[in-house]
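User: Predict the complex.
Assistant: Input components as received:
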Amino acid sequence: MTDPLAVETRGLTRLFDGKPAVSSIDLRVPAGAFYGFLGPNGAGKSTTMKMLTGLLRPTSGEARVLGADLSRDGLSVKARIGVVPDGLALFERLSGSEMLRIQGQLYGLDRLVSARRAAELLDAMELASEGGKLVQDYSHGMKKKLALACALIHGPELLFLDEPFEGIDAVAVTGIRRMLQDLVTRRSLTIFLTSHVLEVVERLVTHVGIIHRGQLVAQGTLDEVRASGSLEETFIRMVGEERAPGPGLSWLGTRSEAR
Amino acid sequence: MKEALRALVELRARLLWRRFTTRGGIAEGVASVVLLAIAVPVGVGFAVAVGFGAYQSVRAGGGLRSDVGAAAIFFGLWQTWTAVSLTVNDREGLDLHRFLLYPIAPGRVYGMGLATGIVGDPMGFVWGAMLLGVFVGAAMARPGAWLGLLAVTLAAFAVATVVLVALIQEVLGLVLSTRRLREWATVLSVVLSVGFLALVLKSTDRPYRALGDILPSLRVLQWIAWPAAFPAAAARDLFAGRSGASLPWIGGLLVSTAATAWISFHIALRQARGAGPSGGNASGGGPVRSGRGLPGGRMGALVEKEVRYLWRQPLARVDALLAPAIAALVAWKLEPSIPLEAGEALRALPLFGVALYTHLLLQAFWLNAFGWERGGARVMFLAPLELAAVLRAKGLVLYLFSLLLFLLSASVLAVVGKGSAPPWAFAAALLLHAGAAPWLLAAGNLVSILRPRASSFAIQRSSALSTFSGLMGMAIISGVMGFFALPAVLAIRNESTAQLLAGWGLLGAAGAWTWWKAVPKEARLLAERRDDFLPTVCGDDA
């Protein structure tokens, strides 16, 4: 018997000005999996994630999230997922605690419940002392942590994280990594994550999908995809382009001509 | 350094070009052409008028007629130029903060920003034509070498006006983005308002007379408008043929301009080197405060978010200070000039004007309802929300804010004007304000969805509306005013207050019905356009 799927797409495609950013991909993310969606810059990771979370309409194809058709049951699906999108989704003129509480209410939580959870999440993210500060005055790492808290406040079944480790320090990465591992192992949450940081991904994920130039080039459990090598070796082999350094750039290292 | 400046000029030109060639650029281009088509004949018309004024002043060769002409030209032009520039000036293309990384002197970037701001302003043609009109009129009246000094005066006047506008913008930005200064500014404005009202209430006669008595001693205040006061004084001497006497005034103008530019630049530099794009430490840190707020539920959360956003919006604060101040000015200057025998309807006009003006003042919010959401706009599409609820919450909060401004302004009008408007006029004005709102909000939602613009919270950085949205705003307001003018014309002709109230009531009810029916359709349009809408509002394609 196959695992129930948290995310399933068929021929999912998105064109921009007639050119494919994502080209007919068939994703299969088992429920309870920690799914790493990898690819080089511009491969189509964020576009795929935007289509799966309702931020972008597919040009063609189908997407089922938690068993429901996103285009038809958008609101019920959204209530069950949490998202940390590329560029984050934060109201910068709210304080951290206001942002979290209001986010909870927007997802249908009672005001008091939302306020209590907001306080707990701020504490867990080590932002409790900064809860009264406006989001615009947060550092990049603090905003990432707050965005993750926002994605969790309503207790989602499926979490979409777009580059959660980008631009944050090693200590914060470790903290977030532990939290995500805990969410998957103890709370049966499904996580769909995109990242460039392959060594972190390799230590976290159970399943991997690799996208290159808009096409899914590999998908399966971590062991299936990496076979006998490391994930980084597999990734480079699938999407890397060997390029010998050219004869140019000879001016680098010489005295600047700028006046 | 020349290369760097050339690059800056090219950057500005390319940004302008991209504005017309990227998404929605055609609409922007058409709007700019329309604005220019309006600006050219207006500019030529005003240039001829002001040129004729200059001609007559020079021919008078001194005396009261010449003095009044010189003062009218410079103070009138300065006032209009400043007001328009503060509303529509767009200097985002050369935001100092972005250029601190480059090896270019910040002063040059700032100066270039000011200079290209004049060229990029469609109204620049009008101001330029009017100054040329003054010069040509004066030259026709009395050719001679003195025209060289007049040319210097006019050029320095233009620079001084632009520089003072920049200073006002920088100071407003500083005051509104720094918590401590903002609190002091609020206290100061309250003290000034209370003092002004006390002065008015203390007078036993009509307030304008009491104030009129003290105005002569306040003549010194004209120097607050120094970009107009110096050239007016210089022109007075030049028109009278006293070229030598004009030199100190021209010198004063140049020195004041340089000093203002220096102060303005250093404030901008301080802010650019400050806390980042927010332009200052807008909030206090510290732990979570106990949650005050509106009742729960999705709608409650949406409304609460809108209330907090509006409250923390510098532009809204400026509007809250501006609306009562303008009402006071209208009551002081305009109301007394309407004779008692003019009839109740005419005496109520200032009040009706204030009702519409509060909507006009807030047009940036209803024509670009999502302009300040940035990344937060994604929440509308990620959370399980009906987009119609988002639009309704926005409309509701903005209407309540507008109502608050109107009530404040109407109270000021009543106090300062000492009740020159009849009592029924307040009910009618309230009806007009409430009745116009849904029409404006329904039409504004469409513009907000079709032509969104990621706007800066720092009010001195950019205009909150695109040229197209501004033009649409003019059309919408004119249309709504036309609608509501019909019952007013009928009521004045038939001298029937009841007809006016009934007409506005009906129009308002129709507006409310239209808004209610339009919102779900606009929400569907928003959902359909999200692929274009989100990158623009979130600033991803900025």
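Residues 324 and 535 of chain B are 37 Å apart (CA to CA).
Let me know if you want any component modeled separately.
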